[in-house]
Hints:
Helices cover 29% and strands 29% of the residues. The chain is of the alpha+beta class. Strands 1-2-3-5-4 form a 5-stranded mixed β-sheet. The chain has a 4-stranded antiparallel β-sheet with strand order 7-6-8-9.
Amino acid sequence: xxxxxxxxxxxxxxxxxxxxxxxxxxxxxxxxxxxxxxxxxxxxxxxxxxxxxxxxxxxxxxxxxxxxxxxxxxxxxxxxxxxxxxxxxxxxxxxxxxxxxxxxxxxxxxxxxxxxxxxxxxxxxxxxxxxxxxxxxxxxxxxxxxxxxxxxxxxxxxxxxxxxxxxxxxxxxxxxxxxxxxxxxxxxxxxxxxxxxxxxxxxxxxxxxxxxxxxxxxxxxxxxxxxxxxxxxxxxxx
Length: 238
């Protein structure tokens, strides 16, 4: 039996609060069960130096976890002078995922930075961050279009992310912490609403997963992303 009696193919209770931050061009507070991530998209009228003069923009992400987002307090990374390897890896994943959904030429020579701050962690923080980041990005682009800065929508794909894995021999969707820490296999899938694959991260802890198990968790992830994308559109009023 999974925590709270969830079925193997069930997502945790999901909610999106759009416009959570009044100062950002786009924002979303996403909750995957007890995992809560605040995603804010900021528009900057410049691009990194290596992109100047090329007629296209840039989209990137930053990720951080509040010190008491977990059961024990974590030291702020600013105290050590640099982000941890885990943080850097997740930031790059968020940036790659978002750029796969954007026509950078249509964005023009400007940058959108999406900050993903974990307020509370109970597993799946990177997948929640990506799912919420797309909504914050979409809201920021809508703002630019309303202001007449952009004539066409540069967001060319809808994306979401979810975890799936093998726990006690069973293939399950959207692992929370108690499942994640004992999982034989833990995987994260970043997919488009049309079934395109952006990134898959999968690790078998003790026993290699079989092809059949991978196919099963991939099918679960596709189903989960379909549900997430439907919830995203509902949050946007579409």
